[in-house]
């Protein structure tokens, strides 16, 4: 499965970390464009200017971990696309160019099925997207969560804190699954 990750999904570190760990582990193929990358980093800098020095390192790590993630040469498609928010056309154009199956976004209203289906693409909320992997390969998802937690481990994050964070960032179903399987994934 090829998924274009929208800026609002990459903006949130916990969501970004879990999705990229799953992609790095071969669960799906993650894609994004420089424009998507610029959008999430620009918005994050507005909200969290103290992260200015860390964001370029995060971008470099993302591109190194997922070598073929960056979608290019999609700009010519943008003028011919119609979406409720014209500023989101670049995301659909990147998805079409990448032959993506799905756009993972918190902003479903701006990616209606009527606009996406002619291009063989659908939009999914990240919790719905993760649910498909939780159902198909729960152990792989749990292994990826464990890897994310180990990476966050100084100081170690508690189970409760991680679950609260997952709910806070908009992943309640994923949090419920993790809560039911906490002995497996918590180091």
Commentary on this structure:
By secondary structure, the chain is of the alpha/beta class. It is built from eleven helices and five strands; from the N terminus they run E-H-H-E-H-H-E-H-E-H-E-H-H-H-H-H. It has a five-stranded parallel beta sheet, sandwiched between helices. Helices cover 55% and strands 9% of the residues. The model has no long low-confidence stretch (mean pLDDT 92). It folds into two domains: 2-129, 3-Layer(aba) Sandwich (Rossmann fold); 137-185, no CATH class.
Task: Produce the secondary structure layout.
Blueprint: E1 2-5, H1 7-11, H2 13-24, E2 29-33, H3 34-47, H4 55-65, E3 70-71, H5 89-97, E4 102-104, H6 113-116, E5 122-124, H7 126-136, H8 138-151, H9 159-168, H10 172-180, H11 182-185
Parallel strand pairs: 1-2, 1-4, 2-3, 4-5
Which descriptors apply to this entry?
globular; 55% helix; alpha/beta; 5-stranded parallel β-sheet; Rossmann fold; 187 residues
Can I get a quick summary?
The chain is an alpha/beta fold and 187 residues long. It has helices at residues 7-11, 13-24, 34-47, 55-65, 89-97, 113-116, 126-136, 138-151, 159-168, 172-180, 182-185, and strands spanning 2-5, 29-33, 70-71, 102-104, 122-124. It is globular, with a radius of gyration of 16 Å.
């Amino acid at each position: 499965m090829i998924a274009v990750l929208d800026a609002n999904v990459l903006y949130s570190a916990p969501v970004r970390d879990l999705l990229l760990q799953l992609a790095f582990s071969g669960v799906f193929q993650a894609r994004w464009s420089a424009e998507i990358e610029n959008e999430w980093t620009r918005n994050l800098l507005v909200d969290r200017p103290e992260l200015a020095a860390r964001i370029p390192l995060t971008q470099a790590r993302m591109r190194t971990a997922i070598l073929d993630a960056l979608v290019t040469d999609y700009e010519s498609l943008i003028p011919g696309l119609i979406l409720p928010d014209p500023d989101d056309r670049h995301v659909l154009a990147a998805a079409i160019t990448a032959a993506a199956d799905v756009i993972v976004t918190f902003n479903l209203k701006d990616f209606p099925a009527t606009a996406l289906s002619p291009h063989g693409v659908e939009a999914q909320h990240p919790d719905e997207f993760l649910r498909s992997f939780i159902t198909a390969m729960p152990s792989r998802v749990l292994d990826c969560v464990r890897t994310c937690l180990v990476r966050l481990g100084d100081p170690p994050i508690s189970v409760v804190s991680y679950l609260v964070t997952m709910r806070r960032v908009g992943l309640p179903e994923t949090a419920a699954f993790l809560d039911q399987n906490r002995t497996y994934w918590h180091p």
